[in-house]
Specification:
With 311 residues, this protein is mainly beta. The protein has one helix spanning 2-28; strands spanning 35-36, 45-48, 59-66, 79-83, 88-96, 101-108, 113-121, 124-132, 151-153, 157-162, 166-173, 179-181, 186-194, 197-204, 211-216, 224-229, 233-235, 239-243, 248-255, 261-263, 268-276, 279-286, 293-298, 306-310. It has 3 domains: 32-132, Immunoglobulin-like (Sandwich); 151-229, Sandwich (Immunoglobulin-like), CATH 2.60.40; 233-310, Immunoglobulins (Immunoglobulin-like). It contains 1 helix and 24 strands. The radius of gyration is 33 Å and the shape is elongated. Mean pLDDT is 84; it is low at 1-29 and 141-148.
């Protein structure tokens, strides 16, 4: 019996040593508790906050508080928040008198990762880990309570659209999707449906260089971002041209799509426009005083394609 008792004691001692080693290894790996005791406070000091589902772009409110709630004044604590700035944008909001806690906003910058956030309280570090769902590029999946549903865009990430051209998204969905442009640089044109495919067309009506995000079903992040690029064109008029007062001058711009044309000052007034095939005609009238001049601009160019001067 004594022999068996000695063997049992040896086993228990080994387990204690193993537990110590594992605890030391976990501490060495940088893992911290989510709550702790602080001298002078009755309750456990804990980091709170989170959500059942977290996606890239979401912002959560975190707080360091006491298990005793409003019964304890935590304003004298020294709290420092920290996180990987490549994964989280962290805004320290300081002490909240109304909530009797220390607060911070965190915005998640990456998807498909587990993000640790730390709060060092009077030298003791607390940790909370947040699992951020992977980006799905506009693809939704089923929920048992509501049946199968899905959304998928054929266009994701960054892309370009020539000035004044249209672009059509193909959204594959189980029901009619909502796709909206995030700025006035693109104008909605039409939606056509074929089976579960929805073809949603927008036109680039902004200036060259304008960017615009497109949002699927009120998503917080754009499913794609478009930038307007210039369209090659050719003007039949360059340099400086003299035009008699009250006379008209006509430009011919050759372009694959309708260009934007503007007169840069009140010395000349825009009169009319017309087109034939890929040739676009813009007419301006000299209304200023002799010697006054005006630049003619195509597709929001910084430099005029030509200068008209009142003769």
């Amino acid at each position: 019996m004594k022999r068996h008792f000695r063997i049992l004691c040896i086993i228990l001692a080994a387990l204690v040593v193993l537990g110590t080693v594992l605890t030391t290894s976990a501490s060495a790996a940088g893992k911290y508790d989510s709550d702790t005791s602080i001298s002078g406070y009755k309750g456990r000091i804990v980091m709170r906050g989170g959500a059942a589902i977290i996606q890239r772009g979401d912002t959560l409110l975190l707080a360091v508080g006491s298990s005793e709630g409003h019964a304890e004044d935590l304003s004298k604590l020294k709290v420092t928040w920290s996180a990987d700035p490549s994964e989280v944008k962290l805004t320290d909001k300081g002490f909240s008198k109304g909530n009797d806690d220390w607060e911070a906003d965190i915005t998640f910058l990456k998807g498909g990762v587990t993000v640790p956030v730390y709060a060092t309280v009077n030298g003791v570090t607390l940790e909370s880990d947040f699992e951020v769902w992977a980006d799905n590029n506009g693809l939704g999946y089923s929920n048992d309570n509501f049946g199968v549903w899905y959304r998928k865009s054929d266009t994701t990430g960054n892309f370009t659209v020539p000035f004044n051209r249209s672009y059509t998204f193909k959204i594959t969905a189980s029901s009619a999707p909502s796709l909206v442009a995030g700025s006035r640089s693109f104008k909605y044109v039409s939606t056509k449906k074929s089976g579960n495919d929805y073809f949603i067309k927008f036109q680039a009506t902004g200036r060259v260089g304008d960017g615009c995000g497109f949002y699927l079903d009120t998503g917080k992040l754009p499913v794609a971002v478009a930038t307007i690029t210039t369209v090659p064109f050719k003007s039949d008029t360059t340099g400086t041209v003299s035009v008699m007062k009250n006379k008209n001058y006509q430009f011919m711009i050759t372009s694959a799509s309708r260009p934007y044309f503007a007169i840069g000052s009140s010395a000349f007034r825009f009169v009319s426009s017309s087109s034939s095939g890929n040739r676009y005609f813009f007419k301006a009238k000299a209304v200023g005083n002799p010697g006054q001049a005006s630049g003619a601009y195509v597709n929001y160019s910084e430099k005029p394609v030509a200068v008209l001067k009142v003769a």
